[in-house]
């Protein structure tokens, strides 16, 4: 399966995945509704097109052995949990998955990777910030905390149904808060690590940064290189999934802010303000990935944050030099 298609290659994870696949010798066709914001992925072909359009999908799946489907309408808590984008998130992402699967299998695509999300786990299992439950078998009875999560759950089932009914191979991963350089860091769609790095980089010594809620909500965050490693290991395995790809190093959002401050060498105050929060606690449960793949992510959060902070600080400095606020 040397001819691969990466859907969502103009995005953060997709761009990194293209680079990994090219380094491994694959012929990579990339597609996204936009070019990459920070670094053009080294694909053999980069097609700018809307995957909601059947004509575009028919074109990009031609002569492809395997599809990595990462394209979605998504963002951080400031985008997903306000409720203002629910219809678009569900319609856009579901339409993309329906198109990619149907036209892909008609074109003879033999294997599909689908990037699901930890947001599909039930809200009722994530109310205790100290002990959230996110094992893969805890998905049902279903009760995601957002329409984004509901769409991810629907699409998981869609891919597995196509595997049963049409004989295609499928691999499904549930990502847990992936972060790193060359990702969205401003504008409202950024995730918490990027937001914290930006706020700290923009704030002078002795100032203050804002954190939504009381900051005691918990999450785990996975550095991009380990995410891509997990994807490649899953795809090359005999295991269909779904499986968590995430870190088990759980921190509060206040602790995440403190890590960014320590890396920057700044002492800043935290002002807690109202804002969209999502579930109270979430952490990756990596028992299944260790069992099935003999591997799980291990990089300490601080290492990934240090690399990410250095990159975002450069973006902030460049924006200031250009007069952009």
In terms of DSSP E residues, the strand content is 15-25%
- CATH class of the largest domain, named Alpha Beta
Tally the helices: 10
Total count of domains: 2
- CATH 2nd-level architecture of the largest domain: 3-Layer(aba) Sandwich
What form results from the Cα inertia axes? Answer: globular
Short summary of the structure?
The chain is of the alpha/beta class and 325 residues long. It contains ten helices and 13 strands.
Name its key features.
325 residues; two-stranded parallel sheet; UDP-galactose 4-epimerase, domain 1; single chain; alpha/beta; 2 domains; globular; Rossmann fold; seven-stranded parallel β-sheet
Structure description:
This protein has 325 residues and is α/β, with parallel strands linked by helices. It folds into 2 domains: 3-178 and 222-245, Rossmann fold, CATH 3.40.50; 180-220 and 249-282 and 300-317, UDP-galactose 4-epimerase, domain 1. It is 40% helix and 17% strand. The chain contains 10 helices and 13 strands. Strand 5, helix 5 (147-166) and strand 6 form a beta-alpha-beta unit. Helix 2 crosses helix 4 (86-106). It is globular, with a radius of gyration of 19 Å.
